[in-house]
Amino acid sequence: xxxxxxxxxxxxIRALIExxxxxxxxxxxxxxxxxxAPEPVMFDVLPPLAYQGLDTVKQRAEKxxxxxxxxxxxxxxxxxxxxxADAAFAHYLYHVTxxxxxxxxxxxxxxxxxxxxxxxxxxxxxxxxxxxxxxxxTGQASLDLTPDTPAS
Amino acid sequence: xxxxxxxxxxxxIRALIExxxxxxxxxxxxxxxxxxAPEPVMFDVLPPLAYQGLDTVKQRAEKxxxxxxxxxxxxxxxxxxxxxADAAFAHYLYHVTxxxxxxxxxxxxxxxxxxxxxxxxxxxxxxxxxxxxxxxxTGQASLDLTPDTPAS
Lengths: 152, 152
Description:
Two copies of one chain form a homodimer.
Chain A: H1 7-25, H2 29-34, E1 36-43, E2 51-52, H3 54-66, E3 73-83, E4 87-99, E5 105-119, E6 122-131
Parallel strand pairs in A: 1-6
Antiparallel strand pairs in A: 1-2, 3-4, 4-5, 5-6
C-alpha cells in the first residue's frame, strides 16, 4: 500500500508546533510538558546524550526557561510534517534569541525533529531531537550558521 | 482511535537499521543511498544546518566514508522504533570509531533519529537527524560523552 498524507493529522501537528512556540514565548512549562507522550525520549542541544520521562522533561524545561533574563525569542521556519494515521514525524529550524541571566546573549539556529504518536486521539511528542552541528576542525559547536549557510 | 504498534513494520525498520550498520562497515554507499526516500532532508553531525536530495546524500556519504583510513567502527544501542502503518520514526545511539586520513582518531557517541515513510511497500528514510550535544560553558561539542554520562 502506498503511503498517503493525511491532511487533518498534518494540520493538527502543525497546530501543536505553533502552540509549542507560543508556550515558549510565554515560558508556560505546563503547556510544554502537556504536549508530550507518557515516556518521551529526548536528545537535547546540551548534554547528556539522552534523557527520558516527563519529570525530567519538566525539570529541564524549567531550567532552560529560567536561564533567560526576560523573553525568549523563538522563530521557526522550514517546517515539514509527515503524518500517518497513528505515527508521524516533523522537523523544522528555529532561531532562539535572548539574554541569559549571566549576561551573555544567545542568537543561534537549531535543528528540531519531533517523533509523534496519536494518544487517545491527540498527537503527542514521544521523541524530540534538537541540535546544532559542530566544526570538525575546531571541535566547536557551529553557533553562527544560518539556514542559508552553504556546505563548506 | 488509539495507536497500536505494528510488529511487522517495526521489524522491517529494525532490519533497515541493521542493514545500514552493515553498509557503513562495508563503506557501501549505494546501499546507504538506496535506503532513502526520493527527497530526504538531512540534519547532519557536521555543517550545514540542513541539506536535501539523494545526490547530496550520496556525495556526503562518499566524503564521510572516504575520510576514514581503513574501517569505520559503528556500534548501535538503545534502538527504539515507533511504526504506524505508513509513517514511522526510530532513534538510537551509535559509537563511531576509526582513524581519519589526516591521522586523528575518532571515538564518539552520536544520537540518530530517522523519520521513515512506506514507499511502494518498503520503508525508506525520509529524514535523518544526527548530532552530539555541546557544552554551553565552552562552546565545544561534547565528544567524550557516553550513554552513561549523567546530566551535569
